[in-house]
Design a protein that fits this description.
single chain, alpha/beta, Rossmann fold, 2 domains, eight-stranded mixed sheet, 19 helices, elongated, binds adenosine-5'-triphosphate, binds magnesium ion
Length: 379
């Protein structure tokens, strides 16, 4: 919650930034927060906004007018916004990121025409693009760089894949570069290997990600096939590197901010603190930490209402209120610790709603908490 007199940090970010990236572990509310922020940007700030979602819940996708993958940017129908009582100052767009297609497009753009098919059809490419650690995170950022380069939106809000470990996300460009690392490439491209005379087991890559991924292939896959793939992929080395550098720069730009989303769940606090530290160490801007699904404390009015009930109903309702109180206390302790560890980044709280956030009305309601129109009493 922002201190009295200070502007809500997310309202400000919605006005000033051109890229917002919602990050956090699985299931905490990244997609919800990303969509709510884009909605708010278009509807309240009058900035043409796009939310790039990743695997949104089906009902949310429907509410945004998205029916299938394919990187298509769809404008949200103004009639739907009006129907949900949401103002429509500027157009709002949404899309679902198609990871495979985005990888393929990257290769198509980066590879010489005679090498494209060879790379796209290779089993190694298919495994690397889907299984290499960080490849999902990377491709989301690659899409972001593409969208940004076109600059037809005032604000792009990027949702991100569930990240098991914060470092996977920040390190994604480096991991992709690591795969193209000259050492690994040199080993693979030695003439002996290319001729298929040396076994893979003689090659030592240490613990590089490339080696780990490639070591999953055994038996049937031939060395020649691997060497051939490495030879063709080496042709897109430089443009790939350049792109990974651009993506890194975009994330560190002053016009980009991260929004860290978390549950008030004590088990996950270390990870949030770690992620926050990493972002700051990398000179990346954190607009706010959003603590989502916070249990509100039962109010005095709820307590008084319970007292007026006949037994045994009164006992049951009071027990439920006590449980809620305990959950709210647990959240409050966790949040206090988190705030201390993330000084001076501002915090924003969104209560746990009774229902999922799967339509425009609920998204708008969530956005009002994010931008300070509505505030939870401090947990
Ligand atoms: N404050 C809230 N109160 C109640 N339900 C919520 C709240 N925020 C999000 N939800 C619901 O929780 C579910 C998970 O949210 P969401 O999909 O945004 O999480 P996510 O971090 O994107 O998940 P994933 O890591 O799987 O992509 C959704 O059904 C969403 O509608
Ligand atoms: Mg999601």
């Amino acid at each position: 919650m922002s201190a009295p007199g200070l502007e809500n940090p997310l309202s400000r970010a919605l006005r000033e930034k051109t890229v917002l990236v919602a990050v956090g572990s699985g299931g905490v509310g990244k997609t919800t927060v990303a969509a709510a922020l884009a909605l708010r940007s278009a509807s309240a700030e009058g900035r043409r906004a796009l939310v790039c979602t990743i695997d949104p819940a089906k009902r949310l996708a429907n509410a945004l007018g998205l029916s299938e993958l394919g990187n298509a940017e769809m404008r949200i129908d103004e009639a739907l916004l009006r129907h949900a009582d949401v103002p429509a100052k500027a157009p709002l767009f949404a899309m679902m990121l198609d990871m495979k297609r985005t990888w393929d497009e990257l290769v198509e753009r980066s590879a010489p025409p005679d090498k494209r098919e060879k790379i796209l059809n290779s089993r190694f490419y298919q495994a690397l693009s889907s299984r290499l650690a960080g490849s999902q995170e990377y491709i989301a950022m690659e899409k972001l760089a593409q969208l940004r380069a076109r600059s037809d939106y005032d604000l792009v809000v990027l949702d991100t894949p569930p990240t098991a470990h914060a470092i996977d996300f920040l390190d994604a460009p480096n991991r992709i570069l690591d795969f193209l690392d000259t050492d690994a490439a040199r080993w693979l491209l030695t003439p002996a290997l290319a001729a298929g005379r040396v076994g893979l087991r003689f090659l030592s890559f240490g613990s590089s990600y490339a080696a780990k991924t490639l070591s999953k292939f055994t038996g049937a896959e031939t060395l020649q096939e691997l060497a051939g793939f490495m030879l063709s992929i080496s042709t897109l080395n430089e443009s790939f590197r350049q792109r990974a550098r651009q993506v890194g720069e975009l994330l560190a730009a002053p016009s980009t901010s991260f929004v860290i989303v978390t549950a008030p769940n004590p088990e996950r606090l270390d990870e949030v603190v770690h992620f926050h530290t990493l972002l700051r160490q990398n000179q990346m801007n954190v607009a706010a930490v959003v603590v989502n699904r916070v249990h509100p404390r039962p109010t005095e009015a709820q307590r008084a209402d319970a007292t007026a009930l006949p037994e045994p109903l009164r006992g049951r309702v009071e027990a439920t209120l006590d449980e809620l109180q305990a959950l709210a206390e647990r959240d409050a302790d966790a949040i206090a610790a988190l705030r201390r560890a993330c000084e001076p980044t501002p915090f924003i709280f969104v209560p746990r709603f009774e229902r999922d956030v799967h339509d425009l009305t609920a998204l708008w309601h969530t956005a009002r908490y994010l931008t300070g129109d509505l505030e939870m009493t401090a947990p």
